[in-house]
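Workshop exercise sheet. Pairs work together: one partner reads the sequence aloud, the other fills in the structure field after running the prediction. Swap roles for the next sheet.
Pair: D.N. / O.F.
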Amino acid sequence: IIGYSFGNPKETVDYIVVLGAKVNADGPSVSLWDRICGAYTYLEEHPDVTAIVSGGRGTDEPITEAECMYRYLVNKGIDEKRIFKEEESTSTRENLEFSLQVIKENQLPGAVAVATSEYHQYRVSLVAKELGIENAAVCGKTAPWLFPTFYVRELYGILYEWIF
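Structure field:
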């Protein structure tokens, strides 16, 4: 069930929420890089789509996850006017809740997609439904050798969502 929603939306959306992940001292973690690449590809293919990069700063991170994503997307050529930053969230649920606030504050219209890692999309869909978001997936591609580690980790996250 974790992999049920791999792939990009069939219909073009108006904006994507890019979920954060760990920022290392030397740049984005593997998971964050995958998400940045997935978002970048979608934004390049759809020049009218706006992005909300979402993620705060952990105690061991040099900058916020949102700032890291913002820098990489702008450096790769995405117009900074197409990117909003949400820099307070510390979890998947907060990523989505706080990004909804950005959407409301800026009166952004239309359909949303959530850019995250393939292994994370199912749990994101559970949280999104609970928050009233009908989302589509923009998945960053995860290296096959990382799947066992991330799937086991994600299983615990899914169990938490089901139980609580």
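Discussion prompt: The chain has a mean pLDDT of 84. What would you look at next?
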